[in-house]
Specification:
Blueprint (H helix, E strand, L loop, with lengths): L4 H12 L7 E2 L1 E3 L5 E3 L11 H11 L1 H11 L3 H16 L1 H7 L1 E3 L2 E3 L12 H8 L3 E8 L7 E8 L2 E8 L8 H11 L15 E5 L4 E4 L10 E2 L26 H6 L2 H11 L1 E11 L2 E11 L3 H17 L15 H18 L1
Amino acid sequence: MDTSEKRFESDIESFLVSEAGGYEQFSYLNPDGHRIQKYVYDKEKAIYPEVLVNFIARSQPKAWARYQKYYGDDAPEKLYRRFQTSVQENGLLHVLKYGIEDMGIKLKVCFFKPESDLNEEQNELYKQNILGCTRQFSYSKLNNNTMDMVLSVNGIPVVALELKNQFMGQDVDCAIEQFKNDRDPKEFCFRLNQRFLVYFAVDLYNVFMTTSLSGAATRFMPFNQGSNGAGVTGGKGNPVNPDGYATSYLWEKVLQHDSLLDLINKFISFVKEKEEVERAGQIRLVEKSKLIFPRYHQFDVVNKVVADVRQFGAGKSYLIEHSAGSGKSNFIAWIMIHILLSTRER
């Protein structure tokens, strides 16, 4: 049995680039065993420019033709500049949801799945999304560091994974330390709400996550199901998976193509909050920004409630047991967002 970290990485990639996973393989091994990048990642711009242009040209041909007519050969560079200006002004999450506008031309950088299969036009646009999976992702102009795996949406990197294997003497804590110590938060791609929306530390048995890198001060939170599975009383960790890895729910359920886009559209949020901070003996209110990404129990229960409502209709009562600090307000907000979006489309 191959117990190497590369095997673990390969198994995750194999699912993601399968029909069930819905991703395109952005890197591959050539006959000599060297990893080749299918598309060029621009480290200075922190995107795959070719992929973003291909997506827009394919999904919005009339708008892109107008854009090219206006800018000529400079259209790809102008697109990036407008994209980046919009990200700096509003954040990546906003741009992914609402797109950009330049010289009166509106361009979407992502399409989300319509609530009804009857909306053929929106379903076709949704199918144009290009979700990419890249192994050994080289992200920096300053060093040769790589991340084990990165997932991108239409050329924009949004998910980073560091993978560890207990058979090789490492575990999720090693991945967390790697994020804290070897990933400079000042790097362009690591700036909050500019590129990556979430970072996962993963081993064979546990998953932890964070939405912001702050060096040694980075706070990772567990993203496990619980020892008896999601929604069942138990201890920490994950149940044994007789069909694979204990952590396979991460890539099979959470990061799967449709699920990731649903997370971006309906779950992840960017908020600004005021916190009390003591400075020079005085308590002051300081505004802090953060991305909110659901914990696994939140992601699971919201999807279960929404699925039940879709099947049986509104009017039922639901009792959801919570522990202190489990995010009751977020549960309510996410359920309402799902229902409102569904109602608005219909």
